[in-house]
Amino acid sequence: MTTAQQLEGASLLSWRRRQLQRGGRRVDFDWLLDLAGGLSWSSLQRLLVEPQRTVQLKVSLKDLEQIWGHHLDQAIPLQHLVGRCPWRDLELAVSAAALIPRQETEVLVDLALETIAGMSIERWADLGTGSGAIAVALSRAMPATPGHAVDLSPNALALARTNLEALAPEGEWHLHQGRWWEPLEPWWGHIDLVVCNPPYIPSDLILNLDPVVRDHEPHLALAGGIDGLQAIREVVAGACRALAPGGWILIEHHHDQSAPALNLLKQAGLSSIRAARDLEGVNRFALARRSLSPCS
């Protein structure tokens, strides 16, 4: 990218209107102005009232135009073009190697931390870590507690390492390539908290996804089989033997999978089973606990 640029607010607003006439959503363009250009939403709103103000952008208008054009022409996510994504109180590195972290998953982390409040946690795990977003959040919240981030994709693990090294340098975390519980076998029975955001989109729905998602985010992290529950079945099936007695598992799922996800947890012999809602009030998460008695 070229150097930063200073210009009058009125000129910037006129340029912004021209860019929006090319297409796309206003909210996406203003996100680009914020994350790549350094012009926050609140500063933009002030500029709309006081266009005579001078603004300093971190990059040139030419650079921003090129990014916006790639997004419009090729449906490339802006997060991939900028290489960063705000999430919780963090700014994560992102790429096509893993899903872009979603707001719903912020709620999953909050639920996990609320659920274990007051517990003594010996070890935690993030299954299907992707960008490492959940692992970063857990490691920052519990830096002295060993944690394990698992993913089948080596490229996703490389991205997760980048984020963990940058954002959770004080944490005791470990990365493992493999399928769900398998790399964690040495610690089975000693994991007090497991958080998992698995692929859960039914196969028939993949082609109907927005091109920004369908064409640029890894299908390995999206496709959950015919009914969307394939990965959830695998994770739940191993939960009772892998969790410590009294340990918790929290799983994110599709908006219409609450009942079958809860039933899978029940069939696996887990207890304290309940659903939790996302930011829109939809049951999006399933929680369960291994009882203190041996698994059946």
How does the SSE layout of this entry go?
Layout: E1 5-8, H1 9-21, H2 26-35, H3 41-49, E2 54-57, H4 61-74, H5 78-82, E3 84-87, E4 90-93, H6 103-115, E5 124-127, H7 133-141, E6 147-151, H8 154-167, E7 173-177, E8 191-196, H9 211-214, H10 230-237, H11 239-242, E9 243-252, H12 258-267, E10 271-277, E11 283-289
Parallel strand pairs: 5-6, 5-8, 6-7, 8-9
Antiparallel strand pairs: 1-2, 3-4, 9-11, 10-11
Helix pairs in contact: 6-7, 7-8
Give a quick set of tags describing it.
296 residues; alpha/beta; Rossmann fold; 2 domains; 7-stranded mixed sheet; elongated; RF_glutamine_MTase_cyano; oxidoreductase; DNA_methylase_N6_adenine_CS; RF_methyltr_PrmC; peptide chain release factor N(5)-glutamine methyltransferase activity
What can you see in these coordinates?
Substrate binds at residues 197-200. Methylates the class 1 translation termination release factors RF1/PrfA and RF2/PrfB on the glutamine residue of the universally conserved GGQ motif. GO terms for molecular function: nucleic acid binding; oxidoreductase activity; peptide chain release factor N(5)-glutamine methyltransferase activity. This protein is α/β, with parallel strands linked by helices and 296 residues long. It has 2 domains: 5-74, no CATH class; 103-289, Rossmann fold. The chain is 38% helix and 20% strand. The protein is built from 12 helices and 11 strands. It has a 7-stranded mixed sheet, with helices on both faces. A hairpin with a 5-residue loop joins strand 10 (271-277) and strand 11 (283-289). The longest helix has 14 residues, at 61-74.
